[in-house]
Amino acid sequence: MPNRIVTSTLLALVLVAGAQRAHAQDNDGDGLTNVEETALTATDPNDPDSDDDLLRDDYEVGLPADPTNTDGDGLIDALDPDSDDDTISDRDESGCEALCTLGRDTDGDGRPDFRDDDSDGDGVPDAEEAGDADLDTPAVDSDGDGIEDYRDDDSDDDGVPDGTDLCRTVADPEQADFDADAVGDACDDSDEDGVPDATDDCPVDADAEQTDTDGDGAGDVCDADDDGDGVADAGDDCPAVANPAQQDLDADGACDLLVFGDGQVGVFRGDGAGGWTKTLQFATPGNGAKTFAAFRAGADIDHNGYPDFAVVQDEGGGFNSANRTRVFREASVATQRTLRVTAPGPGRAWRAGQVRAVEWLSARPPGTAAGSVAIELSLDGPGGPWQPLAAGLPDNGHAQVTAPVAVASQHAWVRVRVSAPASELLAIAGPLLLLD
Is the bond leading into 138 cis (omega within 30 degrees of zero)? Predict the structure, then answer.
C-alpha cells in the first residue's frame, strides 16, 4: 500500500514538472514562451522576429497579457510592419542592422522612432516627411545628407528649422511669401500653372507659357502693357508690337508697320490679332549705298486724315555721302472733315507739371480753311467737365501741354477741339492716369 502511494506521488510530480517545462519553453529564444506566443500574442513561436522588422518580438510585445498596439489598428506592434502608421516601415525606423531589443530614438523623447509619429521632434509629422505612403520606398532625404527628412530637423539644409520653414524640402533661406499663404514662393504655385512663384512671371495669374513680350519680367497675362510701348493693352492698337505712336496707316483701328532698310521701305497692314499683310514695298530714291539714319511716321502733312512718313538716309559713299530726307505721303484725298487723337494712348500716365505731347490727325478737303485747335482735360471721365490746357493752336497735328498741378485722377481724358468756319470737330483720348 505505501509503495502505491509513493509511485502515485512521483507520477504526479513528473506530470507537473513536464507541464512547467512545456509552459516555460521558448523555441525561438525571443523572451516569450511558446504558450504566450500561441495563446496570447499570436506571434510565431519559432521566429524571434515575427514581422521581420529587426525588432525582437518580446521588445515589441511588452506585456504578453496586453501586447502593445501603438496605432490601435488591431494589429499588435510585433506583427505590424508600421507600428505608428506613419508610412515608414518599422524596419527602417528601427535603426538596427541585426535583430535588436532597443530601437532608435532620434529626438530622445523616450519613444523609439517606430512608435513616434514625429521622430525628430520638429513639429512636422513623419507621415508628411516620409515622401509617399509606400512602405517599400525609402523615406525621402531632401538635402542628400544621408539623414532622412523624418529624422532631420532641417530637411533642406537652408538654416531654417522644418517646423517654421515655409518650404521644408526646398532650400529657401529668404522665406519669401508673395501671397502670404504660409507657403514660400520657392515651393508655392499660387496660380497652379506648374511654375513655382519664385520663377513665375505672373505668380497669381495662370501662365504656363510664361510669355513676356517686352521682357520686363511681367508675363503678358498679368502685364497691362505687353509690348512696353507705354500704351495700355486695353487701348493699344498693336498690343504685341511696340508702337508708342499708335500708327494706324489705314485708320482701321489696328496698328500697321513701316519697315525700312537698305533703301527699301515695306508697308505691312495689321489685323489687330498678330496677322500682317505686306501691302507695299518700294525703293527710296537716291544714288549709291542707302543706309538708315532716321525714320519717323505719324504726321499728316497733306491733311487727308492718314499719317505720312519720312526717311533720313545716308546716300552715296565716301566723301560724297550725305544724309537726305525723303518724305512719303499717303495719297488719298479727304472728302470731309474728320478728327482722330493719336496720342496720348490709353493707359498713359501724366505727372503734375510735366510737359506732354498731344497728337492728332485732322482731315479736311482741299480748299477748306484750316481750323484753330484747343486742348482740354477732364478729370472725371469722357463726359467732362472739361478744363482748358491750351487754345488758339494751329491745326498741325502736334502740340505740347503742361499737366495741371495739385490734381490727381485715375480716369482723366484729353479732348482735342478743331474749330473752323461753319464747323467744329471733337475727339477724345483716354483714360489716363494723372498723378499729383
Answer: no
Phi, psi of 238 (to 5 degrees): -150, 75
Residues 416 and 358: beta-carbon distance below 8 Å: yes
**26-82 pLDDT per residue, tens:** 999 999 999 999 999 999 999 999 999 999 999 999 999 999 999 999 999 999 999
Strand partners, 270: 276
pLDDT the model gives residue 177 = 84
Instruction: Give the strand pairing for 349-351 and 423-435.
Output: parallel
Contacts of range 202-206, beta carbons closer than 8 Å, 24 or more positions apart: 203/178, 203/179, 204/178, 204/179
Query: What is the bridge-based pairing of β-strands 355-363 and 349-351?
Result: unpaired
Residue type, position 272, single letter? G
- Which residue is it, cell 512663384? 197
Q: Is 65 left (phi over 0), alpha (psi -120 to 50) or beta?
A: alpha
Which one has a higher pLDDT value, 114 or 222?
114
Is 206:192 a contact under the CB 8 Å cutoff? yes
Distance CA 44, CA 62 (A): 15
Alpha-carbon span 313 to 262, nearest angstrom: 9
Predicted TM-score (pTM) of the model is 0.48
